[in-house]
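Troubleshooting entry. Yesterday's outputs looked truncated, so today I'm pasting the complete records for two proteins to confirm everything comes through intact. If either block looks cut off, that's the bug. Protein one:
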Amino acid sequence: MNKPKVCVLLAAGINRDYDAVYAFEKAGAHVERVHVNTLASCEKTLKEYQILMFPGGFSFGDDIASGKILANKLKYKLLEQIIEFISDGKLIFGVCNGFQVMVKLGLLPGFDGDYRSQLTTLTFNDSGKFEDRWVYLKVNTNSDCIFTKGIDDFLYVPVCHGEGKFFIEEKEVLDRIISNNQVVIQYCDGEGNFAGYPFNPNGSVNNIAGVSDETGRVFGMMPHPEDFIRITHHPRWTRGDLPEKGSGLKFFLNAVEYARENILSD
């Protein structure tokens, strides 16, 4: 069986690349860590891959704003490749700093196929501090997002960020994201109810933790599903009945299955 190829993008300050590699390999993909300069020089191209992963970390030290410098570098060096990648029906996934990069590059929300315009941002947590703990998430089962298919319950995964507040200045943009079911996951309490801090760790509008584009193939989120792949990743794994696999693995299994059935088979 052919394995989908995943490009895990590297840049200065990225530090969650091996976590992403592990998750995708567990899901059955062939994974390569590729530096942004390697793609910019055309030593490698995105045409070789079916999935592009923007991993977490602190790209370029979060200078100016989290993800902004890497987003600018991609805008002037690789944006045409990325847009072609999307047009070819392929998948893009961004986590934490990767989500910040995608938003500031303009890949999300991607209204009407516009992947160049920044309409939202991720900014400093309302708490004024770095939030590093596990949170509950509720999945929008009406979303077209490929990555969350079959996840019909709420999740428990870690967050690890200082600038995770999803913010939208224009109400029309928020209304459209909601009406399009592009809000894929939201912060909630342990009963699945939307609540404020500490359940919403950053003050995100409408408790938004992750959004997709209109196709459901381009998706970003602040929490880290790659940190809950094995059951031993769970902070209470010795204290109760838990499933054999971490709930974060499903995001990666969905991506690999989709790529195998819908991209490699073409």
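Protein two, checking that the full record survives here as well:
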Amino acid sequence: MGLGLGAGASLLLSACGGVATTAAAGGSATTLRWGWDLPSSWDPVFSSKGWDVHLLSLVYSGLTQLDAEGNAVPALARSWHYAHDGRTLTFALRHGLRFSDGTDVDARAVKASIERGKNHPKSLIASQLTSIGRVEAPDRHTVVLELTETDYQLPTLLAGKTGMVVSPAAFRKDEAALATAPVGHGPFELLSYAQNSMASLRRDPGYWNADRITVDRFEAYPAPDETTALASLQSGRLNVAQIPFSQVSAARAAGLKVQLIPSMVVRVLDVNTSMKPFDDPDVAEALKYAVDRQALLDAEQFGHGTVNLQPFPPGYAGHDPGLQDAYRHDPERARRLLKRAGRGKGGVELTLTTQQAQGIPEQLQAQLEEVGFRTRIEVIPESRASELVYVQHSRALYIDQFAGRESAVQTLQVLFGEEGLMNPSRRTTPELDAATRAVRRTPVDSPRYGQVLREATGVAVRSMPNVFLYTVPRVLARHPGVSAIPRLPVVQRFEGVKAA
């Protein structure tokens, strides 16, 4: 049991391109052209954006990957097993694999890569590897993780960016170069990269699952602007792209195939309780009741998606239907809480930070002012958002969205942990720590796993200030000659994608 999805559920998909044909020796070469955010870094240890995982997965692999139901399945490792107490995890590696620099993917390489992610002073994934005490390589094809505590989440955790294996020869020779020139073992190898412009890749015939990669070239471009998405598809610059909800009908009318795909992305308001006015618990709680989530969903996404008051979407093992009524829109209750906080007269001054100048910020501003928040909108550029919100912790309320991670514990840590990347106040509670440890110590195939995880979800929703709003489906338009993009959880892969 992985993500706990039913067979009909689908999770996060990124956009992929269709196929262009060019002359090549022995036949035609096929090229996928994909519009997506190019990575903040091609080095998974220093990558600062959750979205980076999709591009990085083109050039790296982990010991595991996730199947369509969110279960950990073999990748660089062909098998693994835990000791009876859950404190030792042993992986058996595939034989004969190489990194794109020609060096061997063996146990010593895996050991060095994991240790770098865990111990590098600037690592952005170190906080997710704390349960690993020691890494051993007793022979060329065996990796043993000695754990500091029982942790049954590691096979799913290592399926994502946290577990991507980087060539030790590359990071020992020139670590800084990895930011723009990755060296891993993946379905593709990076040929050239123009930062913020374009990445060109070619299929790696030595990839462990190369038989399932049916295109020869891959080109990645920045995601098109909402106003140019359809034009990019119609002109052939891209073959598959994410489009806004407002353009679904136009895309279909233009002869494009449109996929509306449920995802693990949840719209959320990040609340910093170390800053005024949310250092007052009554004010933070009032915010949860002040928001009309359905009205925001209808306006921003034309009704696509589902109101969701928790970090896990419907269909996920951690989603608790009983929490959906926990903070229903209740303006009067919000006013009472502000009055109890001594803010009934004159209202509460508040700055709402966003990357959008119009739309949901204005609607949210009106909802907040209705209950007594005097709200000013601050628009910041995307390039500054992470620094201001998550590094400097200098913004009290930020409109954001969260993409679910491979591991449920990883999700809880990123959102709510003291070192969580998306926890702007860096505060948590002992109760939530205990609930998260209980999830970590429960085997994912245990009949109790879903219940333990839902209990942790409930503690998080009730004790932490985050205001979860609604799910955000992926809307993909693709050329009709391109086969459907696989429905996979969290990390997009391209096995079996074909063109007519």
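Both blocks look complete. Sanity check on protein two: DSSP finds 14 helices and 19 strands in the chain.
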